[in-house]
Amino acid sequence: MGHQKVLKHVVELAKEQNTQSLLITYHPHPRLVVEPNNRELRMLSSIEEKAEAVFALGIDYVLVLPFTQEFSQLSPEAFVADILVKQLNVHTIVIGYDHHFGINRSGDFNTLVRLSKQFNFSVQEIPASTIDEIAVSSTRIRKALSNSGLDEANQLIGRPYQLTGTVIHGKQLGRTIGFPTANIHINDPYKLIPSFGVYAGICLVENKRYKMVCNIGVRPTVDGENISIEAHLFDFDKNIYGEHLTLFLVQYLRNEQKFDSIEALKSQILLDAQQAQTLVTLD
Q1: Using an 8 Å Cβ cutoff, are 145 and 153 in contact?
Q2: Residue 121 and residue 90 in contact, taking contact as beta carbons nearer than 8 Å
Q3: How far apart are CA 97 and CA 81, in angstroms?
Q4: Which candidate, 237, 235, 201, 234, places its Cα nearest to that of 216?
Q5: Pairing state of beta strands 244-254 and 228-233?
Q6: pLDDT digits over 13-27, tens only?
Q7: Measured between alpha carbons, how far is 144 from 201 in angstroms, rounded to an integer?
Q8: What domains sit in the chain, N to C, each tagged with a CATH number?
Q9: What is the pTM of this model?
């Protein structure tokens, strides 16, 4: 929600100044380049999900700069002169109060103010309260998603948490018990996967929305080893192997658990499906 507040301000500024709004981001995440052995970093949004959300707020353009070791050595002055001024003809820059850029994070708000006089652009600083709100919210969202707190996470995000991936071949066990599922491979290896359990939600496939019930976990009754994300779509019967899907997690239903038999599992899935159908609306 904090990010949304900032981006809406940028959109309003662009309209006031009769110019266009642009978000600059980096891919891969800078920490993955400067800390190549970091195995703990997890993202709330893939680069595609981020761009989609940004465009939905009215931003005109998203510029994704490839973050490499060479790029990380760029001085703040060179970044401003060569990219922001020469290539983008920047009018106004909006940054957070603690924003740093350039080699060894040596550039900051004061650097931009100094360079703005040389290159004739304006600089606005987002107040500490908003940036701190974003930092605190991001930490709370990660913690909530990892501890079955989907309701809290969705409130802080301002929309249902989403997972984007490709349908791959699974063991097709769901089909044998009357609940065929799409087995989803998440495309971004650094995407944060919520805690194991059963979720009600919406699946976007071929630009159409379907209610779904989704299981995230190791399927202890039938498998117990490999982590999988499986979605059963209601009122849907198509072969979608290789298709690109987006899952919106609306409600956490229950923990993943091991059942004594396939029949007991089937009975519980039926209850989960009924609950999901009731809780989720496509409006």
Answers
A1: yes
A2: yes
A3: 21
A4: 201
A5: unpaired
A6: 999 999 999 999 999
A7: 17
A8: 2-139 (3.40.50.620), 161-279 (2.40.30.30)
A9: 0.86
